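[Automated response] Your request has been received and processed.

Submitted sequence:
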Amino acid sequence: MILYSSKLAPSPLKVLIFLKEKDILDQVKIIDLDLGKLEHKTPEYKAIAPNSRVPALKLNDDTIILETTAICRYLESLYPEPNLFGENPMEIASIEMWCSRVTSGLAGPLTHGFRHAHPPRGRMGNQKPEYGLAQSELAV
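Generated structure:
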């Protein structure tokens, strides 16, 4: 398996932490893309991830899995121990609840805030500084 990642993006960190907690980092080859150099916008990477986002997990049969939770759930199925998604209905619900809260209430607004309000990120696409500042305030 190959995980396309980036040290500049927060989303791949979730998968990298998951791999570390599972103690399976050695089961996945990690390719770090330099987002500052727009390596995620190349035709080669767009063939893997048409949305140009990281992370992307490429399986040995060339199947691609996008989105952090989908990747982690797939890995959980392959490597069930230690269990990181809960072992009973209450654990599963609590984990899903907190993952959703962190993603929508904290990580999302912070990511959008940084993306739209940090001047060097402007070359990655059209920035909307007012939107970025408003998103940053939501995460506080």
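Summary generated for your ticket: The chain has a mean pLDDT of 88. The first helix runs from residue 11 to 22.
If you did not submit this request, please reply to this message.
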